[in-house]
Amino acid sequence: MIQNVFWFLTFLAIISACMVVFSRNPIHSVLYLIITFFALSGHYLLLNAQFLAVVNIIVYAGAIMVLFLFVIMFLNLRRETEVQKPIAVKFAAVISGLILLAVLLGALLKADIQPGSEVDSQIGLVENLGKVLFSDFLLPFELASVLFLVAMVGAIMLGKRDPGEPTI
Amino acid sequence: MEVPDVIKTIPLNWYIFFATFLFCIGVVGVLIRRNALIVLMCVELMLNAVNLLFTSFSAYRSDPQGQIFVFFIMVVAAAEVSVGLAIIVMLYRNLKSVDVGILNKLKW
Amino acid sequence: MNISTSVLLIPLLPLLGFIINGLGFRKISKGLASIVGTATVLGSFLLSIYTFNYFLSNNSQPITVTAFNWLAVGDFHISFSFLIDQLSLLMLLVVTGVGTLIHLYSSGYMHHDEGFGKFFAFLNLFIFSMLLLVMGSNYVIMFFGWEGVGLCSYLLIGFWNKNKSYGNAARKAFVMNRIGDLGFLLGIFLIIAHFGSVEYSEIFGRAASVDTATLTMITAFLFVGAMGKSAQIPLYTWLPDAMAGPTPVSALIHAATMVTAGIYMVIRSNVLYTLAPATLEWVGIIGLATALLAASIGIFQNDIKKVLAYSTVSQLGYMFMGLGVMAYSASMFHVITHAFFKALLFLGAGSVIHAMSDEQDIRHMGGLSKSLRITWITFLLGTIAITAVLPLSGFFSKDEILMNVYMHSPLMWGLGVLGAAMTSFYMFRMFFLTFHGTFRGTDYQREHLHESPISMTLPLMILAVLSVIGGFINFPEIFGGQAWLANFMEPLFANAKQASPEAFHHAHLSHSEEFMLMGVSVGVAILSLIIAYVMYVSRNTVPAEEGTPIPAVQKVVYNKYYVDEIYDMLFIKPISALSYFFYQVFEFFVIDLLVNGIGKLVKQLSNLTRRFQTGTTGFYVFAMVIGIVVILLVNFWGFLFR
């Protein structure tokens, strides 16, 4: 049963990832990406990482992808205006991507990967993660807030229109 | 202590291969698309592949630090996307296009 | 006064004078500059006398005064400290005493010169360096002073630097000295390598435990330094050229003090030299050769200062000859008396030049005895002193050296006496040509003949007195004297005697032999005097003017055996030809080709590779991915395909 779920989610993720890359319409890409994120959240649930599953949906599928959609609609990119790269370039890109895959897979196949001997299924729960996050990782956590602030300021600065600049 | 079924039945290797696949799809996407938005999305895809890898290792080895790391990656990704999208908007405003092929001034 | 304060003040006073005159020579008036310059050296002289008295009243115990720790490298320390013993006290008295007189003289001689304050600053700096040289308690401080006096010599020879040939003479002196200094430096390095210290006390205490070959090497290198500084063959040619400097400089630096640094150094290192008889042999031979060569050149020179310069080289040769036969105290004796009469002669020559409106050629002088009475008398005393006629100071010191040489080798003695004869001849030749006969200068010069001011004649008179009585500080036992100097210097050789007792063991001459030797040398000197008198006073011969044909042998000697030309041919011409070759061929075909070729190659390659800089972001990403793949492949190659 659980294997079937795993394979279903895996294929769903891979196929929709491929569709993100190959679909012509940006909006479709976004939607496929959302599907991919949902599939990944499913995987997180299987791994008992419930906190991450929820956060993934809220942050990625919710916030970030909505932002993407918003920008696409804002810029009015529904039309398939994208200029395509030459077929040779695409071919070369795919080939190099495949070589990368082959090298990584080859190395990983040969690697001796050992799962831990003792498994504690509770680590992914909010309570446990929170304890670790607010004890060992308190400083990075606080710094992350600074990062957000900087990103926010930066985004506003970039998006602000200079006086006299024409509207879109 | 209850162990998730998937850990019992699915080897860790499958997750690693899966994550590698996703990552390579992201790479190919970055390489063949010219729409800056799609390129950004493919970057997100690669980030998520890495997230999955972290999470699976964390779960299989019962180490919460991996998941904490994923959490921080999400933080950085959110910041990155906000800035990246702002850049794309500005790009569009100046060039009336989101084609990365137009950005060819980075040369001698 | 505290003795260490007084010792520290001895070199500090001239340094103070240098700083005042050196910084303020544009602002300070001439009178003040000469007062500052002279008073500081006089202060040092008085302090030296005070220190000398203290030393005598304190049972002649050596005093070491450490100013500060200068260099510390790990366990190796060099302290900036001064050693006051018999040798340094004698040198101190000579340097500061003669130095004071020459400063006084300079205030009159240089009075019309615009660089007056600068001149005094340099003189003070020289005195400071010389004091460091003789007072230092280790070889590094000696080297410091050694370089300092070399620098001052350079500055002062080229003092009138608007004249290009004077500047060249200064450079020649500097370069020649550098060759010697390199040897000296190598000697110091060897000492550090073998003794692990540069302090005299430590080195001399342990010298006997080092093998003879090493000591021979050390002493030979040190002697190379002495050759340069004390103008011995083959590094002597700079000294006659150094006469380009103002006459007081010639008197102070190139006659009385600096050139004796080499002798001081050998006497200071007497333990090492005693233990290295092979080097001593060479010291003696080179000294003798220099004495003869310089004396023979001196016979035909017509420049009053050149004659004195060659006589200085020759006298230095005698001193080294004395050192070569281990007559250390006799050489020191000659250093002291030579300082008196050579300073006197140079200052007298300066007075003559002053009176003759800067004429230096003795062919254009003559009959000056009537107008320059004081100069004439003092110059005569100096001349008699240098020609070693009884009982002036030169007689005692030179005779003591010759006596020791005779005990070592009668042949060397014979040659030494020959040199003494030549000395007597050329000195009196110069004296007669200058002061006797008829006046041969221009009418302008005749009208302006005048005796020098008191500030110049006073030092002459003092030095004349010293030249006359200076010999009595080492009045030999044969005349019922005490040989005070030899006894005073005895403790200096204690280490050497302990290390090698047999070296000091030589036969004593009987009194009749001693009288015989003295008689011969005095007789020879007087004979030369008579020949010179007959030639230049009775027959009124005047050396030929430039351009008139002269016999071949005389021509060779007159041109100083063409040594400068030989050096020019042997060293300068080949090096300059080689440099020219490198400049014309190597520079053009190798260096330029290489440099320009590399430039062109880079340009070509970059022309090729710049095509990769398409500027398209997509291409860069692609290149990055390829790069990552390559890096991974390289890293995992062995892992993947093992």
Question: How would you describe what is shown here?
Answer:
The complex is a heterotrimer of chains A (168), B (108) and C (642). Chain A has 168 residues and is mainly α. Chain A contains six helices and no strands. Among the domains of chain A are: 1-79, Up-down Bundle (Four Helix Bundle (Hemerythrin (Met), subunit A)); 126-161. Helices cover 74% and strands 0% of the residues of chain A. The model of chain A has no long low-confidence stretch (mean pLDDT 86). With 108 residues, chain B is an all-alpha fold. Chain B has a single domain (10-99), classed as Orthogonal Bundle (Helix Hairpins). Chain B has helices at 5-9, 12-32, 36-61, 64-95. In chain B, helix 2 (12-32) runs antiparallel to helix 3 (36-61) and helix 3 (36-61) runs antiparallel to helix 4 (64-95). The termini of chain B are far apart. With 642 residues, chain C is mostly helical. Chain C folds into three domains: 1-137; 161-558, no CATH class; 615-642. Chain C has 26 helices and two strands. In chain C, strand 1 and strand 2 form a beta hairpin. Chain B: Pfam families: Oxidored_q2.
Note the beta-strand portion of chain B.
under 5%
Helix content of chain B: over 70%
Give the helices and strands of chain B as they follow along the chain: HHHH
**CATH C-level class of chain B:** Mainly Alpha
Q: Got a strand count of chain C?
A: 2
Low-pLDDT residue intervals, each spanning 5 or more residues of chain B: none
Count of structural domains of chain B: 1
Structural class of chain B: mainly alpha
Q: How many strand segments of chain B?
A: 0
CATH architecture of chain B: Orthogonal Bundle
Uncertain stretches of chain C: none
Shape of chain B: elongated
Largest sheet of chain B: none
Numbering strands along the chain, what is their spatial order in the largest sheet of chain C? 1-2
Order of helices and strands of chain C: HHEEHHHHHHHHHHHHHHHHHHHHHHHH
Which radius of gyration of chain B do the C-alpha atoms yield? Answer: 18 Å
Question: What's this model, at a glance?
Answer:
The complex is a heterotrimer of chains A (168), B (108) and C (642). Chain B has 4 helices and no strands.
What are its keywords?
heterotrimer, A: 168 residues, Four Helix Bundle (Hemerythrin (Met), subunit A), extended, B: 108 residues, mainly alpha, Helix Hairpins, 4 helices, NAD (chain B), oxidoreductase (chain B), transmembrane (chain B)
